[in-house]
UniProtKB/TrEMBL annotation:
Alphabetized UniProt keyword annotations: Oxidoreductase
Protein name per the record: SDR family oxidoreductase
Keyword Oxidoreductase tagged: yes
Coiled coil segments of this chain: none
Gene3D superfamilies cross-referenced by the UniProt entry: NAD(P)-binding Rossmann-like Domain
Family membership: Belongs to the short-chain dehydrogenases/reductases (SDR) family.
Gene Ontology terms, MF aspect: oxidoreductase activity, acting on the CH-OH group of donors, NAD or NADP as acceptor
Domain of life: Bacteria
Keyword Transmembrane attributed: no
Amino acid sequence: MTARRGLAVVTGASSGIGEACARGLAEAGYEVLACARREDRLTAVVEGIRAAGGSAQVQHLDVTSADDVAALVERIGDRGVDVLVNNAGGAWGLESVAEAVEEKWRWMYEVNVLGTLRVTRALLDGLTRARGAVITIGSVAGRYNYVGGAGYNAAKHGERSLTEVLRKEIAERGVRVTEVDPGRVRTDFSLVRFDGDAERAEAVYEGKENLTAGDVAEIVVFAATRPAHVNIDFVQVTPIDQTSV
Ligand code: 8X3
């Protein structure tokens, strides 16, 4: 398959929703620059895409690192960026406000809000050149609050504010901005949240309908491939039994 649609940059592409977006966008004909911290897993993802006939490359990226973001910008050079998927992010902990751990809150703000800001701002020129699309993976946690969720809720609400304002500010450049807010998706999300406690993580998904990362990626690809005058502002998507949101 040859890349027909231009360049798609995906953060957090080594697993879960990011990996599925990288695969889906490559299948749709984009040349994917797959970005993540874990280069071994990222390399496996990229090899899988290539084996399926798609176009993809590995880019080491920790969204909390200004140097890594600068290296990403340098790699892209004066190319246009047709799609940026801001997927890197996550939750850490489920403590009550009374028991809040500042380090965890700081990390969640850093990856979900500042990471999205840092990468998006750095690629704005490229996105403008291509009249591209920014697609940010938010969460239902950015719309509805829950007990134990305050740190993650606050970060995802912050990311949503950033995304909404960005849409209003850069529409005049022809850059589209979409937020996709998934509910429960079976990924490593809960494993990360619970510090690698597999049993606790599995309990989140056990006996429930769960979205797959692929379900979310289909929406991302759909939003990315709309005509230039069509902006999908946001999509909330949940498994059918997640009626709490
Ligand atoms: C996570 C969404 O519903 O699993 O971003 O808490 S949920």
